[in-house]
Amino acid sequence: MALTSSPEQPLPVRTVARAIGDWINRLGRVWVEGQITEIVRRPGLATVFLTLRDPVADVSLRLTCSRTVCETVGTGLVDGARVVVWGKLSFHPARGTLALAVTEIRPIGTGVLLARLEQLRGMLAAEGLFAASRKRRPPFLPRAVGLITGRASAAERDVVTNARRRWPAVQIVLREVAVQGPLAVGQIIDALRELDRIPEVDVIVIARGGGSLEDLLPFSDEALVRAVAAATTAVVSAIGHEQDAPLLDFVADVRASTPTDAAKRVVPDVTEQLALVTTLRGRSRRVVDQRLDREERWLADLRGRPVLADPGRELDRQGEYVQALRSRGRRCVLHTLERAEQDLTHASAQLHALSPAATLDRGYALVRRISDGSIVRDPAQVDPGDALTVRVAAGSFPATAGTRTQAGTSTGTSI
């Protein structure tokens, strides 16, 4: 039932406190999960005071329980332990505080933690936070290396010592945080965001030595995993040993098996790089020398060729070749003319042998009738008195046919 009040009729503190107590009592008994951050056992008191902190959010709750309940848990009830408690919330009006009166405490076993981590890993993987496509490759030689690790820890010493041994000029921006316990996640996230805002920091290393599953739980925290996924700078995870695999290893851009391995991955070894440069320089020199030697031999071969040793010799050879072609052409033309002349002479001889003029030269004559120009081959073709033309070798002359004899030949011819 809502309380009514006004400036003229305000409610007393006791009334408000009593109402708060009534509202809280309605909640009844509840199971609550969290992480123990503080245990206070005062001498002479049968009540033990604890603080239960939410592992993700910065929220805590005051617990009270009897010594008997705490002793039932045994050695499992220590700072940083994950537990499930059963109790009833109560409000103390005299102090204005809220507390959970616990009647049972159950430590969360390793198997339960592993099952929850596996469930969280599957959920984050389904969101794509572990995809290889989103991972970035750290630069070959970073301008500055951000290091998030415990205060004066062995992990810090391993990373710094090995990084400076490999590259003495490396710049390391250190952020010391809690690496286990209830404050670890918040401090690591704050340090990560701070380093991510520094332009000179090209890679961030989150390092911690080995430990139990409970000690490494902050590095499987969902809030930390999402903060690493949202970072714009490449992140290297170097948590525990090779067999340790917190969820940070899956979301980080590079996973190092140990802090020492992280130092080897973020900065190059100056000795190895100098040796590599020397090797590459020698290889380049050999390649250039071989190329120059090959080109020199090629030039020497060119200079040794006759056409370059005596350029005029090639011109003379070409001139001789042209002269030979001219002589051959002239001989071919003369031979063709001589053969044509012989053919003409032979044809002329044949023509002269077959010509009627040759017959006339032997004393024969050719007689034609003037009236029709026909050649007289038979005396019967001519009548007495017919005008004739007689052609002999020297020329032609007219004639007249005479009378025939009994034999049929003409008896006389007048010219």
From TrEMBL:
<dbReference type="Pfam" id="PF02601">
    <property type="entry name" value="Exonuc_VII_L"/>
</dbReference>
<keyword id="KW-0540">Nuclease</keyword>
<comment type="similarity">
    <text>Belongs to the XseA family.</text>
</comment>
<dbReference type="GO" id="GO:0003676">
    <property type="term" value="F:nucleic acid binding"/>
</dbReference>
<dbReference type="InterPro" id="IPR025824">
    <property type="entry name" value="OB-fold_nuc-bd_dom"/>
</dbReference>
<keyword id="KW-0963">Cytoplasm</keyword>
<dbReference type="GO" id="GO:0005737">
    <property type="term" value="C:cytoplasm"/>
</dbReference>
<feature type="domain" description="OB-fold nucleic acid binding">
    <location>
        <begin position="12"/>
        <end position="106"/>
    </location>
</feature>
<feature type="domain" description="Exonuclease VII large subunit C-terminal">
    <location>
        <begin position="129"/>
        <end position="327"/>
    </location>
</feature>
<comment type="function">
    <text>Bidirectionally degrades single-stranded DNA into large acid-insoluble oligonucleotides, which are then degraded further into small acid-soluble oligonucleotides.</text>
</comment>
<dbReference type="GO" id="GO:0009318">
    <property type="term" value="C:exodeoxyribonuclease VII complex"/>
</dbReference>
<dbReference type="GO" id="GO:0006308">
    <property type="term" value="P:DNA catabolic process"/>
</dbReference>
<dbReference type="GO" id="GO:0008855">
    <property type="term" value="F:exodeoxyribonuclease VII activity"/>
</dbReference>
<dbReference type="InterPro" id="IPR003753">
    <property type="entry name" value="Exonuc_VII_L"/>
</dbReference>
<protein>
    <recommendedName>
        <fullName>Exodeoxyribonuclease 7 large subunit</fullName>
        <ecNumber>3.1.11.6</ecNumber>
    </recommendedName>
</protein>
<dbReference type="Pfam" id="PF13742">
    <property type="entry name" value="tRNA_anti_2"/>
</dbReference>
<keyword id="KW-0269">Exonuclease</keyword>
<comment type="subunit">
    <text>Heterooligomer composed of large and small subunits.</text>
</comment>
<dbReference type="InterPro" id="IPR020579">
    <property type="entry name" value="Exonuc_VII_lsu_C"/>
</dbReference>
<keyword id="KW-0378">Hydrolase</keyword>
